[in-house]
Design brief:
Strand content: 15-25%
Oligomer: single chain
CATH superfamily of the largest domain: 2-enoyl-CoA Hydratase, Chain A, domain 1
CATH architecture of the largest domain: Alpha-Beta Complex
Number of domains: 2
Shape: globular
Largest sheet: 8 strands, mixed
């Protein structure tokens, strides 16, 4: 059963009527429903198109969190071959919130890293809802070191509400782990492509997204804090979530205009959850184009351009 968001209720009603008609027709083979179904389907398709053409920032946050949206594990199954995960940080433990692996992307050996949120209660608990501990970021540093040593391009798929903020994470050096992982990104001398596929929350996302090319899916979000967190700090009122989302400029469209990301990856009409395979294929095509562009650059030039990219952010706005 398709999961509908609050603002999709009119769509749910129309599509629900189509389902009811088909169920009735299944019980009565003589019932003629083709014309009615076609009319309702056209109306529903247009409503989906109109609704998604005017999404508010808060609605995009909801779409980015949709339970049917493809996760890291879906992308790895669709885009990569010979996917071989690496476990542990060689210091404390394994963290399943961040998955790091060696794989092949269209025949080319690559290093892959990303957040996995999980898609049911058991897997969400296993992956801690995609909120990594310090050992997850130290595992990322291991992967970056391997990629640099063997000249492997790095592909990152980001989807997290943020790094885990509990006492245990702080005791084990969460801020230090994030900072060193971000530094490891900047030091890489190989092509590095990151894509925000859902939520890109705070330093927990930035730590594995400080890349040569950064892309966002059309309905993904990327921000220093969640709208809920922003609303609780500024207004202390949860009903201000929508105002916070609008003020934070966290959508792909906003961030492209600000120069924070390099391009927007289109989603099917109605969001990634309505066209999972198409969405993943679009991401794969964008990654392939980026790797092709970056492969002509020398290791020193890759590192220099990446550092300059982030040093330049905000300079034009400051003027």
């Amino acid at each position: 059963m398709h999961a509908y968001l609050d603002f999709e209720r009119p769509i749910a009603e129309l599509e629900g009527k189509i389902v009811e008609l088909r169920q009735l027709a299944a019980q009565d083979p003589n019932m003629q429903i083709d014309a009615d179904v076609s009319r309702l389907q056209s109306k529903a398709d247009q409503l989906v198109k109109d609704t998604y053409a005017r999404l508010t920032p808060w609605q995009r946050v909801q779409v980015a969190r949709h339970p049917g949206r493809p996760h890291f594990s879906d992308y790895t199954a669709h885009l990569f071959d010979e996917f071989t995960p690496l476990a542990g940080d060689r210091a404390f433990s394994e963290d399943a919130a961040i998955v790091a692996a060696l794989a092949r992307f269209r025949g080319r050996a690559v290093a892959v890293i990303g957040h996995e949120k999980g898609n049911d209660t058991k897997s969400r608990l296993k992956h801690n809802f995609g909120m990594a501990m310090p050992e997850g970021y130290r595992k990322a540093q291991r992967l970056f070191a391997l990629a640099d040593r063997f000249g492997l391009p790095v592909i990152s798929l980001v989807d997290t509400s943020g790094a885990y903020a509990g006492v245990a994470a702080e005791e084990r050096g969460q801020a230090e782990a994030i900072a060193r992982t971000t530094q490891a990104c900047l030091d890489l001398r190989v092509p590095f492509v990151a894509t925000i596929i859902g939520e890109g929350g705070s330093g927990g996302a930035l730590a594995i997204a400080t890349a040569s090319r950064v892309y966002m899916l059309e309905n993904a979000v990327y921000s220093v804090i969640s709208p809920e967190g922003c609303a609780s700090i500024l207004w202390r009122k949860p009903e201000k979530n929508q105002d916070a989302a609008a003020a934070m400029r966290l959508t792909a469209q906003d961030l492209l205009g600000l120069g924070v990301i390099d391009a927007i990856v289109p989603e099917p009409v109605g969001g990634a959850h309505r066209g999972v395979d198409e969405t993943m294929s679009n991401v794969g095509e964008q990654i392939a184009r980026a790797l092709s562009e970056l492969s002509s650059l020398s290791p020193d030039e890759l590192r220099r351009q990446r550092r300059e990219k982030y040093l330049a952010m905000g300079r034009d706005l400051a003027k």
